[in-house]
Write a structure and sequence with these properties.
12% helix; mainly beta
């Protein structure tokens, strides 16, 4: 008996020691992206028991309807007659429901499920091995027939399963263990060791689940995630799968809560700034505790690395946290001579990091880093956006979340490349269209000094597609909105919260405005430092919805939609105290390098057969004068903005081409609206925007190319995009006249130039002095290939990328502008060709293919190093009858 008592005492002592060690163990955030098993579809006969909820029946696709079609009232689904998992999933969002009385209670019983994939011993050896982020649809094949153009002609819908064994050591006993998912498309449901943990329906938000009650420390734990991506759920390519990063976070039971810090800056000047910090602390243990919360603030260098000693410290605060509850510590400090965050080129995106330490009885039990920037941002109705007192005109673009040939699977380097090219063009602002982005994208915008509109919803209660997020909006709008704000509120690049895009509630008067007021109130509860907006393509100034938000943000209405006049003055008269800007402007359309004749003489024109659009090839003319029916050319859009100096700027639709929404040709795979094509090649429009947005950059860009066999003696209009104010054009040395830009004119046109082979040259002037020059020549037949990587050194981490441009050239090295030769890529060494593309919106060659035709002289290969394998990578390109090329990269 004594021996048994001693054993029990020893066991209790060991458990106490383990708990003590767990309570003091440092926070860990571990990537669990590698080594998952994946399969499509449910086991036979189990789908009904695994449903989140019953959905309405879809009888017909609406693919190809007008992008600005009126959203419809929601269709009602039949009531569930059998089990659905919604009651077990809803509690996953409880932390984001403000009223405790409205939080969801998990059913006392567990759902009745007999699904082989949930059993820890199930053999998934035949499933595909994948690493995350993963997009199950991007490899194709493309769906060449049927109503799939709106979603990029790729099979993004369906049910997918992911399984991964997690090794949880015995030393983790007593710790809190969380699953953090940055994004999964969509209706995610998570099980651990066969037990339903929870989930999150909205495919674009990040979310956390507490695994602690289901973990078995000291062995393998089987994690299973089911996704159910509905058909008819998106207007663009949503991707499919766990397409962002996934993490395992381990903490002491008392720790900084999920997204639990909030930095605010006030009274910002060059001399000083007041920094306040809220820290929410969770106590997952069974007893209350008193802890100390202290924070040191450090400057970050340009790479985001902490440097030097703390620049300031927030004094420790004692905080009592009850068992199973949370509490908030608040503190503040004044920083002298702060390094301010602001957009280049006139400002610099300086950043800081607040390092918060929680101590209990003098022992550190948690440390948490919060990156932030010190800046003063004001939205002035007359001057526009003021950052640190300086007016910053919004030179912005809208971007969807896909990364072209890489699909929705997020990659930092691919996103960085997109942003770098936009900055080169002169852009300083980005609108997330129309959903929260990957967290790493906001880290990039912080570092690069790009201001951001963070947007949460494309629909509210009225639907745009049959099974879109209107189905979950009533239950989840508060959780999704609060989750976005709490995750993103410390990013200095975010300057505006958008609660919706072209929502159907524009059409429902006071009923729709009531939803707008509810959402705006939630934003103000979470963050009063940034204004709210909702992008309006229909709502007029006199309607109820515009009054619910802080800013007037219009889609296309500034220049006028179709035959409607521009409406900036109406909004200005109704809301003289609100800043006004275009949240979507232009929506011009073009295919890179495709020039069609005749050319419209108008400032803008809708695409029509033989008038900007070729209904045989499904290409749109690259003269950059043609637009969607609801949009305009850049020229007309700027004319509308420039007539009203109170307009704060614009966000162009769109910065890059994207998968889906291929207006006007829904038989294609990708959009025509980008300033940059899907492969990352610049359209002529790039230089039109660069000329406006970077007026100090000497620039003269000529279009079209000058290789037109068969057009000899025919009028071939020549347009010049220049940051100068006048220019003279020459054909084979003969002047075609010198022209000066008039007010509200943004290009110079010579519409009656007669084509003759040879040299086309322009000399641009600014204030009477020579400013820039450019020459285009008639080229010879295709003779060889040329390869140029954007980076010749990449990390051997399995994620870093090199984007290699292939040019088809003549014997003298000039790009052959209409070349469409078939090119085959190969690779040697520790790397792989992830994807290829050519920017052709009509191409159905699968992205993983290493053989693809060039499109108007260009093609792209995307190369990735193999993880842990360093060395030389050689990429080769071959084409029939042409001299091949090769290029070497170094993986280190």
């Amino acid at each position: 008996m004594k021996r048994l008592t001693k054993c029990r005492a020893l066991a209790s002592l060991l458990l106490w020691a383990v708990a003590l060690l767990a309570a003091a163990a440092p926070r860990e955030r571990l990537s669990i992206n590698a080594g998952w098993r994946f399969t499509m579809g449910d086991p036979a006969g189990t789908s009904a028991s695994l449903r989140y909820d019953v959905r309405p029946e879809v009888k017909a696709s609406e693919d190809g309807k007008a992008a600005d079609a009126v959203p419809q009232a929601a269709a009602l689904a039949a009531a569930a007659q059998e089990q659905v998992l919604k009651p077990w999933i809803l509690p996953s969002g409880n932390a984001f429901i403000g009223d405790p009385a409205r939080r969801h209670r998990r059913p006392a019983h567990e759902p009745q499920l007999d699904v082989a994939y949930l059993k820890p011993g199930y053999d998934d050896g035949t499933w595909k091995r994948v690493d995350l982020p993963h997009d199950w649809a991007i490899a194709g094949p493309f769906l060449e027939t049927g109503p799939y153009g709106g979603v990029g002609r790729l099979p993004s819908w369906g049910i997918g399963w992911y399984r991964k064994a997690l090794d949880i050591p015995a030393s983790d006993r007593g710790r809190s263990i969380f699953l953090d998912v940055d994004g999964a498309m969509s209706y995610a449901t998570v099980w651990l060791n066969g037990k339903l943990v929870g989930g999150w329906p909205y495919g674009y938000n990040s979310w956390r689940l507490d695994l602690t009650p289901y973990v078995v420390p000291g062995g393998s734990n089987m994690l299973a995630i089911r996704l159910d991506n509905p058909p008819e759920s998106s207007r663009w390519y949503p991707g499919g799968g766990i397409y962002r990063n996934v993490w395992l976070t381990k903490t002491a039971p008392i720790h900084v809560a999920h997204w639990g810090t909030h930095v605010r800056t006030a009274r910002v000047s060059r001399d000083s700034a007041e920094v306040s910090l809220e820290v929410a602390v969770d106590n997952d243990s069974r007893s209350g505790a008193t802890v100390s919360v202290a924070t040191a603030i450090y400057a970050l260098d340009e790479q985001g690395t902490r440097s030097g000693q703390p620049v300031a410290q927030i004094q420790p605060q004692r905080l009592q946290v009850a068992a199973g509850a949370s509490n908030v510590a608040t503190g503040g400090v004044t920083i002298a001579r702060p390094r301010l965050w602001g957009p280049p080129p006139t400002q610099h995106p300086h950043r800081y990091v607040a390092v918060t330490t929680i101590r209990r009885d003098g022992v550190g039990i948690d440390e948490f880093e919060t990156r932030f920037g010190i800046r003063d941002v004001r939205m002035d109705p007359d001057k526009g956006m003021l950052v640190n007192g300086e007016r910053i005109a919004l030179k912005g673009v809208n971007n969807h979340h896909d990364l072209g040939a890489l699909g929705a699977a997020f990659n930092v380097r691919a996103a960085e490349r997109q942003l770098q090219m936009l900055v080169e063009m002169g852009a300083n602002a980005l609108r997330m269209s129309h959903n929260p982005p990957a967290p790493e994208l906001l880290e990039l915008t912080d570092r690069m000094g790009i201001v951001v509109i963070d947007e949460v919803f494309d629909v509210w209660e009225r639907k745009k597609t049959a099974l879109d997020t209107h189905l979950i909006f009533p239950d989840w709008h508060e959780q999704d909105l609060r989750a976005m704000i709490r995750r993103d509120r410390n990013h200095p690049s975010i300057v505006i919260w958008s609660i919706g895009n072209e929502v159907g509630e524009q059409y429902t008067g006071e009923e729709g405005a009531a939803i707008g007021r509810k959402l705006a109130a939630i934003v103000r509860q979470e963050d009063r430092s940034r204004p709210t907006m909702t992008a309006m393509n229909y709502a007029r100034a006199h309607m109820p919805l515009p009054a619910t938000v802080d800013l007037v943000s219009v889609n296309y209405q500034g220049a006028g939609i179709r035959s409607n006049p521009g409406r900036f003055p109406e909004f200005r008269a109704r809301f003289p105290g609100k800043m006004i800007f275009s949240s979507e402007s232009a929506s011009a359309l073009s295919s890179r390098g495709e020039y069609q004749f005749p050319v419209t003489g108008a400032l803008t024109s809708s695409v029509r057969p033989d008038a900007g659009g070729d209904w045989n090839t499904h290409q749109v003319s690259a003269y950059e004068l043609y637009a969607s029916d609801f949009g305009t050319s850049a020229d007309r859009s700027w004319s509308a903005q420039d007539q009203y100096p109170y307009v704060a700027g614009e966000f162009v639709w769109s910065g890059w081409d994207y998968l889906g929404e291929p207006t006007p040709f829904y038989s294609s795979r990708s959009s025509y609206s980008g300033i940059i094509d899907l492969a990352g090649f610049k359209k002529d429009r790039f230089y039109l925007y660069q000329a406006r947005w970077r007026p100090d950059l000497p620039l003269a860009h000529i279009l079209p190319h000058w290789t037109w066999p068969g057009r000899e003696g025919k009028f071939t209009p020549v347009h010049v995009f220049t940051s100068g104010d006048e220019a003279e054009l020459f054909v084979n040395g003969k002047s075609q006249g010198r022209k000066k830009r008039a007010e509200f004119e943004y290009r110079l046109r010579w519409d009656l130039v007669t084509y003759e082979p040879g040299e086309l040259k322009v000399i641009a002037y600014k204030q009477g002095k020579e400013w820039a020059a450019s020459t285009v020549r008639t080229v010879g037949p295709a003779a060889k290939l040329d390869l140029v990587p954007d980076r010749s050194e990449i990390a051997a981490d399995g994620a870093d990328l090199s984007f290699i441009t292939l040019r088809v050239t003549d014997q003298d090295g000039n790009t052959v502008p209409m070349a469409k030769d078939s090119v085959k890529f190969s690779i040697e060494g520790p790397g792989e060709i992830v994807a290829t593309d050519n920017g052709d919106p009509t191409s159905f060659v699968p992205f993983p293919s290493t053989e693809r035709p060039a499109f108007n002289g260009l093609c792209l290969a995307i190369v990735r190093g193999k993880p842990g394998q360093k060395g030389t990578i050689t990429v080769r390109a071959q084409a029939p009858t042409l001299q091949g090329a090769n290029v070497t990269l170094q993986a280190h």
